[in-house]
Task: inverse folding
């Protein structure tokens, strides 16, 4: 019942009059004795965030949850930060939190950060460091991390400072031992080739599109 309540609060919070109370209830549930309730409440925070007026207060709450002992809560916060990054007041602080979590001991959290970097990259103040983090994670020992990096690189490619380095990483990942990672890398290479075609002169336009088709 508490888990269902947490999920419901997240979805209907925008329609309720006392949005700060909804937020406080969800924060309380992130400390519930049951791990499933804690995780559900954490994800629900992402739905509630845009509708709470005091963004600094809610950001402080999210910041504290990045240090939670429950890896499920930290994983949920990583996903939330990626989705609400654009509307958080202190983008340097939230970026610092995501950067730290790229070194989390739990591979699911590192994989979550790889995805969140893809969602938030355009708003990250230090794109050079974010690019370096993605590059480092291409060598992660866990395939779920590498596959998420491969997908994110295709999504954020237009914003990456060193595009050749990102391209080289995708080529390497397209030969990865893990099938899903290879598929994600090839899809991203196709997407990047379409981007290159959109920037190319007429002579190179067709060549880039043909390259994209090969990767897809």
Result:
């Amino acid at each position: 019942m508490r888990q269902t309540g947490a999920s419901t609060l997240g979805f209907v919070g925008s329609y309720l009059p006392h949005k700060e109370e909804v937020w406080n209830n969800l924060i309380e549930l992130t400390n519930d004795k049951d791990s499933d309730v804690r995780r559900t409440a954490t994800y629900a925070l992402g739905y509630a965030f845009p509708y709470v007026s005091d963004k600094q207060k809610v950001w402080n709450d999210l910041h504290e949850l990045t240090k939670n002992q429950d890896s499920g809560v930290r994983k949920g916060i990583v996903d939330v930060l990626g989705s609400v990054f654009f509307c958080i007041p202190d983008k340097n602080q939230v970026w610092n939190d995501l950067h730290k979590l790229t070194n989390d001991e739990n591979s699911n959290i590192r994989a979550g950060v790889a995805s969140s970097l893809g969602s938030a990259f355009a708003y990250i103040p230090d794109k050079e460091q974010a690019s370096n983090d993605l590059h480092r994670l291409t060598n992660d020992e866990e395939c779920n991390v590498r596959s998420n990096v491969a997908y994110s690189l295709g999504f954020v490619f237009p914003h990456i400072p060193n595009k050749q380095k990102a391209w080289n990483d995708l080529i390497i990942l397209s030969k990865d031992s893990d099938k899903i990672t290879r598929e994600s890398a090839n899809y991203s290479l196709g997407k990047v080739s379409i981007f290159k075609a959109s920037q190319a002169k007429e002579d190179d336009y067709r060549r880039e599109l043909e390259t994209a088709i090969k990767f897809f």
